[in-house]
Amino acid sequence: MLRLLSVALYLTLVASFTLAASEVKTIEWTDLMPEEDLKLLQQMPEVQHDYSQPSPFDDNYQGDDPAAQQWQQILSSAKVREEFNNTKVRVPGFIVPLEFDAEQNVTSFFLVPYFGACIHVPPPPPNQIIYMHGAKNLKADMIYSPFWISGTLKTETMTHDLGQAAYSMTVDSVEEYTY
Questions:
Q1: What angle do CA 107, 110, 112 make, to 5 degrees?
Q2: Taking a C-beta distance cutoff of 8 angstroms, is the pair 92, 146 a contact?
Q3: Does residue 119 belong to any structural domain of this protein?
Q4: Are 129 and 111 contacting, i.e. CB atoms less than 8 angstroms apart?
Q5: Distance of CA 20 to CAs 4, 13, 42, 142, 167, Å?
Q6: In a domain, 92, yes or no
Q7: What is the CATH number of the domain that holds 146?
Q8: Residue 127: which domain range?
Q9: What is d(CA 116, CA 123) in angstroms, rounded to the nearest whole number?
Q10: CA dihedral defined by 140, 146, 147, 151, rounded to 10 degrees?
Q11: Keywords on this record (predicted)?
Q12: What's the pLDDT tens digit per position in 141-156?
């Protein structure tokens, strides 16, 4: 009887660990930022909109505005949260297509936190862009809507003409965003 109880307890524990390992964690974009980047963002001084001066978003900006320097540091950060490596997650976002198949299905894309993120200047920082691959039946005309994307997140960099991602994900599922 004691042996049977031990086996039952062991099987229950194994099942619990297996279930926990396969659970998908819903995350927000700020979860992907290391604490020091998030603190910098939260402590940003007010941005001045003096268009008679060089913009901190210009490639050749040489100004000494502390807010601009802090903003540049945040916008170029590729620092990641290592604890998310090889984790099953679900994250909301917008699709920036990178590759299509012959039927105009999007086969790889960047997932970004807001619409038009890689079209406008500046793009989000690399730790706020996720390179996605493995999606199925994602038509090109669907890119104007937000989606929930689930899959295995990795802390690996991918660079493309449209931006650089500090994370990548193998897509398990794509579903229309609902709040």
A1: 140
A2: yes
A3: yes
A4: yes
A5: 24, 11, 33, 33, 23
A6: yes
A7: 2.40.50.870
A8: 24-32+80-176
A9: 9
A10: 90
A11: Signal
A12: 888 899 999 999 999 9
Six-digit token string for 74: 């945040």
Strands (E), 101-146: 106-112, 130-133
Which residues have a Cβ under 8 Å from the Cβ of 90 and sit 6 or more positions away? 24, 25, 26, 27, 148, 149, 150
Residue 142, amino acid: M
Residue with tokens 């000494």: 64
Phi (first) and psi of residue 105, to 5 degrees: -85, 140
Distance, in Å, from the CA atom of 105 to the CA atom of 90, rounded to the nearest integer, reads 21
CA-to-CA distance for 63 and 55, rounded, in angstroms? Answer: 8
The token pair at 75 is: 């916008």
Give the separation between CA 38 and CA 107, rounded to whole angstroms: 31
Q: What total of structural domains would you count in the chain?
A: 1
What is the rounded CA–CA span in Å between residue 74 and residue 55?
16
Q: 108-118: per-residue pLDDT in tens? A: 999 999 988 76
As a whole number of angstroms, the distance between CA 113 and CA 75 comes to 14
94 forms bridges with which residues in the sheet?
Answer: 112
| Segment holding 38, helix H or strand E | helix 35-42
Joined together, the tokens standing for residue 112 give 């970004």
Q: What is the pLDDT of residues 49-104, one digit of tens each?
A: 677 776 665 666 676 777 777 777 888 899 999 999 999 999 999 999 999 999 98
